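Supplementary Methods S3. Complex input for the magnesium ion-bound model.
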Amino acid sequence: MSGPANPYRPGAGVPPPVLTGRDDVLARFERVLEEVSSGEGQRPWAVTGARGVGKTVLLLELLQRAEDAGWVTARLEAGPPDSLAAALTRALYVPLRRALARGGERGGALSRLLTVFSAVRVTVDSSGRLSLGVDVDAAAAGAQLDDDAGLHRLLHALGLWVRDESRAALITIDELDAAAPADITALNRALHLLGQDDLPVPVHVVVTGNPTLLAGLARANPYAERLYVLHQLGPLDDAAAAGALTEPATHLGIRWDPAAVDRAVAESWGVPYMVQSIGSFAWQVRAGESISLPDVDAAVGLALAEARGMHLARWDGSTPAQQAVITALAALGGEAPLAAVAERLGRTERSLGRVRADLVARGVIEGREGRLRFTVPGFAAFVVENH
Ligand SMILES: Nc1ncnc2c1ncn2[C@@H]1O[C@H](COP(=O)(O)OP(=O)(O)O)[C@@H](O)[C@H]1O
Ligand SMILES: [Mg+2]
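Predicted complex, serialized as structure tokens:
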């Protein structure tokens, strides 16, 4: 129907119209902004959560706040084909060019940083001003840094430069699980070394990944578990989910009936992706200036049919043993006592302990008081239909 444009944003890495329910972590980030700027060292952050919980859009919010505070920012996504060093080189290219345009001088911290990128064409004119070659080959530059200490050299040089400019830097690395193990080891080592400086450079690093990310990092370097500050993102609570639905509509003169909000919140299970998706479909099917209970019922059906990406990520990321438990739980309607799942599989509860714990750690199921339940709506039906 016509009227104001649909404000809801279901998708991957698409910022919501209103980011709700993350006040604690954002307040902690405000402290990081102050403390890192004033020269206090801060442990890097690891933000974990299952797909659709809002890791990427949280990173975007942190980047925005850092930029507003005048920080240099670089946004990376881990995974092939680039190494982390190459991705970081590429991501730093624009801020470096900007700095050079403002007049970088030979001999300063900026020129020292540039010497770390030995493959970047840096030229010096007669007055001693630096400029960057336009066709920087990030992959080649990264390759120069792919030895174990390369990332540390780069981050340290970056830190000296931003400190020289009385600024600080935020580096975000999304989906770190996708990085090569050698890269993860190099990153852990680099962050570990940075943290040992007497006068830490003002560089803050935030990585994201699956709920099991920290265990993976710790496999690479045993000290990793203490290296990072862990932020586990979970579903939105009812008030936050309700706010994410009603606030954007209110701004546009569209009203949610209270019963419709309650139903949408309940059916979303607080999963941010589902909140946006249900909101978006409800917006589309509504007939006037309010969103009613029948609108939400129709929207929930449409949203569940479109939740395939989230469901596939959970299924494909599971081992055969985990898939067996998932299939049994799905056949039992998606929520059941562990004993019932064990009986269906002809196993003892005890023998399922490990698989159950892994599924909980991955955020696929939650287990409370001996009962198991999937963490996203529609997953049981998806599994029954497809497997
Ligand atoms: N705090 C939040 N409030 C409202 N919507 C959110 C929130 N966090 C994420 N979303 C929405 O959820 C969806 C998934 O977010 P995304 O950051 O891609 O998740 P992830 O990176 O964890 O898979 C997007 O549509 C986004 O707009
Ligand atoms: Mg993401």
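The longest strand covers residues 203-209. The two ends are 37 Å apart (CA to CA).
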